[in-house]
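Our consortium's second objective concerns turning raw sequence data into structural hypotheses that experimental partners can test. To show how far this objective has progressed, the report includes one record in full. It was chosen at random from the queue rather than selected for favorable results. The single chain below, 84 residues long, was entered without modification.
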Amino acid sequence: MPQGFSNANMKKRNSVLVFLKGTTAPLVLYVDNPIGVYEELAGILKKNSSVPMLIEKSTMGPIKKVCINSTEIAAVALQEEQYI
């Protein structure tokens, strides 16, 4: 661990990763309720509907608002990361 940093300084946050068809890097979404957003998106994937649905989310990270076509979602993940 770098000098001046300790476990006491480390914080954890969760983000939702949205993998879209045809892309290699996921969208990283920082939201108020990451578990809820993950469950919502995973539920949409489980339905496997061919009818497109527009999903709009407000976020707290560098991406402030996002709209995703439900038929373009390939996978979702919940990520825990440490930061100072």
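The partners drew two points from this record. The chain is about 15% helix and 40% strand. Residues 34-47 form the longest helix (14 residues). Both points have been shared with the crystallography group to help prioritize constructs.
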